[in-house]
Design a protein that fits this description.
Length: 349
């Protein structure tokens, strides 16, 4: 089987500027721009012929089954909005390879997660459908292996092996929307965080936007996700304290006033300097405002007692650990210039 069946020699434009997969997957408009008439295309696609129509207006220029890469490009060609001559390649930069222009379309769902490197996502060829994200007002229908997913606002795509792919949080939400297996949902969300693909808050934000947090098996998976995210953030906090030579705090404690009320839990506390660190692992759920109000009241109460509270997020610990260590070190050094803090009881949490 020859996967590089050439376009008939009448073509006024050579195909050298196209990648191998682009030579094998072309639209009606692209074939026409190379001098192939619709009648010739129909003739090439006759039973037993060298070509085949794979999706409406999209052709494989070989008779065999498509590869995973060909399926991706075929789905994108079917869904993409043609803004320029489809035969003219788009160059990403000087000296860079040519790539196809796929305006207003990107791979999402399980196929996107596979491209992002998720080990628990299925191989591309095992997927019956390839999800493709397009603007809500596009007049397209799902057909063949292409499943159209609509959105009011397209995210910025990421290029993976030359293919525009939805960011991990959006791809996760689109995948979860089609899954009823609680174990599969949990595995995907856990790998997203444990594998360092994204932060839990970004996942929950997309799941909330997609109105998926009303499904019990998704809520259960999100609870596991948030626990996983907190454990990873705590480990990053431990490593930061050690790596940047901060004095050892007491870890995971509750504060109380002597004989008085509970003041709240802290992830790290330096009693002599009255400096506390609290991980901000809130996720954007529907009750975020109430959670934030409670969070702010706790901080204000502690600071009225003379305790400096440093809030750090998992993302800052991951991307700017040195900067966060400097903030904590500055707070510890400034303790001598402040009035003594109120006496509080420190208890293990």
């Amino acid at each position: 089987m020859n996967h590089n069946t050439p376009v008939p020699p009448l073509s006024p434009r050579p195909l050298r500027h196209l990648s191998d997969v682009q030579r094998r997957v072309l639209t009606t408009a692209q074939l026409r721009s190379h001098g192939v008439s619709p009648a010739e295309t129909t003739e090439q696609c006759r039973p037993g012929g060298p070509w085949q129509q794979f999706l409406p207006g999209v052709y494989l220029l070989h008779p065999g089954p498509p590869t995973g890469e060909e399926r991706l490009h075929a789905v994108l060609l079917y869904a993409a909005r043609q803004t320029v001559s489809p035969a003219v390649p788009v160059q990403p930069g000087a000296g860079g390879p040519h790539r196809a222009a796929y305006a207003d379309a990107m791979i999402t769902g399980l196929a996107a997660l596979t491209l992002h490197g998720f080990t628990c996502a299925p191989p591309l060829l095992s997927l019956e459908r390839v999800d493709v994200l397009v603007p809500r007002l596009r007049r397209l229908r799902s057909t063949g292996c292409a499943r159209i997913v609509r959105t009011a606002e397209l995210p910025a795509p990421e290029q993976v092996t030359g293919v525009p792919v939805a960011p991990v949080p959006r791809a996760l939400a689109d995948a979860v929307a089609e899954l009823t297996d609680a174990g599969a949902v949990r595995r995907l969300l856990t790998e997203a965080v444990r594998g360092g693909h994204c932060e839990p808050a970004a996942v929950v934000r997309e799941l909330t936007r997609a109105k998926l947090l009303t499904r019990p098996h998704v809520v259960d998976a999100v609870d596991s996700l948030l626990a996983e995210g907190r454990a990873i953030a705590e480990e990053r906090l431990y490593r930061m304290v050690r790596a940047y030579g901060l004095p050892d705090p007491v870890w995971n404690v509750d504060l109380r006033l002597p004989g008085g009320p509970h003041l709240g839990g802290l992830d790290a506390y330096w009693p002599e300097q009255a400096v506390a660190v609290e991980l901000d692992t809130r996720a954007p759920r529907q009750d975020e405002d109430a959670l934030w109000s409670e969070y702010a009241r706790k901080r204000e109460h502690l600071e009225r007692l003379g305790i400096t509270v440093v809030h750090v997020t998992p993302r800052k610990l991951r991307d700017a650990a040195e900067q966060q260590a400097a903030v904590i070190r500055t707070a510890l050094m400034a303790a001598g210039d402040r009035d003594p803090a109120a006496y509080v009881v420190v208890l293990p949490r």
